[in-house]
Amino acid sequence: GDARVRSQTGVLSERRGSYPFIDFRLLNNTTLSGEIGTRKKVKRLLSFQRYFHASRLLRGIVPQASLYLLDEDYLGQARHMLSKVGMWDFDIFLFDRLTNGNSLVTLLCHLFNVHGLIHHFQLDMVTLHRFLVMVQEDYHSQNPYHNAVHAADVTQAMHCYLREPKLANFLTPSDIMLGLLAAAAHDVDHPGVNQPFLIKTKHHLASLYQNVSVLENHHWRSTIGMLRESRLLAHLPKEVTQDIEQQLGSLILATDINRQNEFLIRLKSHLDNQDLRLEDAQDRHFMLQIALKCADICNPCRLWELSKQWSERVCEEFYRQGDLEQKFELEISPLCNQQKDTVPSIQIGFMTYIVEPLFERWAQFTGDTPLSANMLNHLRRNKAKWRSLLHKQHSSNRSNDHSGQVTGSQEQTLNEEETP
């Protein structure tokens, strides 16, 4: 079953990657000592291909989400959080703990119901649950950043954006389903390393996709594989499912950061010319792409307590890649050198050159709604906090560099600076 599904979707059958020398067990093993465990886990890390659990699914055995095994107190808190799922201060880390690591499955089941998608598309709840479990399990929990909690966070943000009046007034059920599915699956089976790493290590996915949007193509193809295997949309006409698959691809591929300028220039042109016609399916799809791009990089626009956690997680993932590159005497990628690339400096650059230009245009599109104003305010405050932390780091480094020691008075000053 697995091999047939893979060949049908154009996804590689389970084969080891073409790394000439890198042992990918090191990717998600920070201790770098001790054995990885089962043969299946080694095989997964070597090729980071997914395991479909097809035999279980074909026998009709539904994986049980741990949510339903939690005590009533946790369930009550999770339900209470879901009642406020449209609020921008939604704490996805807390929600993931309350659902025992099932934030993505629980959130999507709720949102599909809230938006009336189950009724509109006549979806089977058991099949929907199977599909969502497959998606959630296909994320690598070992990744500090690109994991199922990130996918849930992006999905919650996408839900907020889909409710913005400028967009919501024109969206069809198909648009909403595509937006939520793309958000949930946009980073599925992410290996925790970036495209340049895959290219320079001659990974088979880089070859398969000719070094273009390598990860995004893989996320899309994996999603199609899971959709077809779960048969979630099998009752719909073939032309409808084919259209859904292609549009999912267009949305997921838009998250490639290398295409940022392409989308920004196009959005700026539409806004300057005031020629967006959201009655037109093509224009609606473009704004769904923009919404997903915003959702994917919205961490700097969250509350500081949440934003800081995400910043530290993504930098930890960068540093792990840098450590791997150093170990195998490869050139360390930009932002991946822990000795030179600090979290504050990485975040300030990211906010300045990537996040701010996109969210300022998004606010222009939405018409400065409360949500857009709130996000931009968080963004500016968070950037100021990172600048303050960067200044403290520089002050600390200068003090330590002076004669190799810190004097008593300097130490007192530094301690005072660190006091909240």
UniProtKB/TrEMBL annotation:
Record GO terms (molecular function): 3',5'-cyclic-AMP phosphodiesterase activity; metal ion binding
Biased composition, Polar residues: where in the chain? 396-413
* InterPro entries, per the entry: HD/PDEase_dom, PDEase, PDEase_catalytic_dom, PDEase_catalytic_dom_sf, PDEase_CS
Chain sites annotated for binding AMP = 146-150, 187, 296, 347
Pathway, per record: Purine metabolism; 3',5'-cyclic AMP degradation; AMP from 3',5'-cyclic AMP: step 1/1
Q: Do the record's keywords include tRNA-binding?
A: no
> What are the start and end residues of every segment in region (Disordered)?
391-420
* Enzyme class, first EC level, given as a word: hydrolase
The UniProt note on the cofactor reads as follows: Binds 2 divalent metal cations per subunit. Site 1 may preferentially bind zinc ions, while site 2 has a preference for magnesium and/or manganese ions.
Limits of the PDEase domain: 70-393
What's the protein here called?
Phosphodiesterase
The organism encoding this protein is Oreotrochilus melanogaster
Please name the gene that encodes this protein. Answer: Pde7b
